[in-house]
Design a protein that fits this description.
Layout lengths: L19 H14 L7 H14 L3 E5 L2 H11 L5 E4 L5 H9 L3 E4 L11 H7 L4 E5 L10 H10 L3 E5 L7 E2 L2 E2 L6 E5 L12 E5 L2 H10 L21 H11 L2 H19 L5 E3 L6 E2 L5 E5 L1 H4 L3 H10 L27 H9 E4 L7 H18 L1
Parallel strand pairs: 2-3, 2-4, 4-5, 5-8
Antiparallel strand pairs: 1-9, 6-7, 6-11, 8-9, 10-12, 12-13
Helix pairs in contact: 1-8, 2-8, 3-4, 3-7, 9-13
């Protein structure tokens, strides 16, 4: 219940949930078959539907995105150092850690918050075995330069594409570049299976190996071929995903409209920068981050966050702190990261979900303007 005098909370995000009429027939099929997991018919249908929608040939479904990233790294049989970004979720680093690999952090570009390919090259050593770039907030990394570097130095590339469901670049799936791409279907994402994730790869042999790894290392011939995990997606998650696919294009259009509304209302506000949309990229509008210049705006990111909270508006300091500053990973920080430090200190994600109303967006925007006027 809201406190007296407080408006209804505007959440940071709300997952899309398909109508019960769509889900029930799948539940009836699953319960009647009594195959709840281990790659049943619904799971297979979901795989095929995803391949068609994403425009990829080979996909492997997982219980969640973190397990997918962990076993994706395992499937590439890596050793030594992995170059990655400090501006990412802790899950990215935890996947590296659980593979006994050493993360090497390089700075990001201030323009789009993705890893700086020029800094990647200076960080490559004889111990480097792979690159783990992250497409941040759906913004593609500089794929062309990363591809050139991977070929020049014979490095594997695994993209953390957790934010990138359905995104296309130059008409092509963003999951095609690199050796592997890993998606997340967590409830906070544009497309969700409650929990869930997937690995996109380029050939059947690699997919079969990944399938074995996620099945405790047991392959299709019931032989143990390596040290895997139980990371399978179950039938109910797959059913949830199949139902979501019917609505995903409409969901993305709603999020796009909300993003454009925010951009219009915040346009010209000194001290607030929104991220530009990359050319030739079909976005999914997964988050709405703004970068605050505290001098120009007259208040810093934390003050804006707290001001919105007082108005019952939930925002998020995302990503803050940098994973390179977390106690568990601070030991791996081996260079200055000025752009990442600056962005982490000044970024704020505003509420965005498929059915956010124009009125709610105006309330959020007006609240930011109000603080700007108070401090002007």
């Amino acid at each position: 219940m809201n406190k007296p005098g407080r408006s209804e909370e505007i959440s940071l995000m709300k997952p899309f949930v398909s109508p019960m009429r769509d889900i029930l027939p799948y539940l009836e099929r699953i319960l009647e078959s009594r195959q709840l997991t281990n790659g049943g018919r619904v799971h297979s249908e979901f795989e095929q539907a995803l391949c068609e929608y994403l425009g990829v040939k080979h996909i492997s479904l997982f219980a969640n995105g973190t397990l997918a990233l962990m076993l994706g790294l395992k499937a590439l049989k890596l050793k030594g150092e992995i170059i990655t970004t400090p501006f990412t979720s802790p899950a990215t680093l935890q996947a590296i850690y659980w593979n006994n690999l050493k993360p090497v952090f390089v700075d990001i570009m201030e323009s789009d918050l993705t890893i700086d390919p020029d800094k990647i090259e200076t960080a490559i050593t004889h111990e480097t075995s792979a690159l783990l770039p992250v497409h941040i907030f759906g913004n593609p990394c500089n794929i062309d330069k990363i591809d050139q570097l991977s070929h020049r130095y014979s490095l594997k590339v695994i993209y953390d594409a957790a934010h990138c469901f359905g995104i296309r670049r130059n008409g092509d799936s963003l999951c095609h570049p690199g050796d592997l791409s890993v998606l997340s279907f967590h409830a906070t994402k544009v497309f969700n299976t409650i929990e869930g994730g997937a690995i996109v790869c380029h050939d059947e042999a690699t997919r079969n190996y990944i399938e074995a790894l996620k099945n405790s290392g047991i392959d299709q011939y019931h032989k143990v071929i390596g040290c895997g995990l139980n990371a399978k997606m179950n039938e109910i998650q797959a059913a949830f995903g199949l139902c979501q696919l019917k609505y995903i294009d409409g969901i993305i259009e709603q999020r796009k409209a909300a993003t454009l509304k925010y951009r219009h209302l915040l346009k010209g506000l000194k001290g607030i920068r929104t991220l530009p949309e990359a050319e030739n990229v079909k976005q999914n509008y997964t988050y709405f981050p703004v970068i605050i210049d505290p001098v120009e705006f007259g208040a810093d990111r934390d003050q804006i966050h707290d001001h919105l909270k007082q108005k019952n508006i939930i925002s998020r300091k995302y990503f803050y702190p940098l994973v390179s500053d977390l106690p568990e990973f601070r030991m791996y920080k081996n260079s200055d990261l000025p752009n990442a430090q600056k962005i982490a200190k000044n970024i704020l994600c505003l509420p965005l979900f498929h059915d956010i109303t124009d009125e709610q967006i105006k309330i959020v925007s007006d609240s930011i303007f109000q603080l700007h006027r108070v401090t002007d």
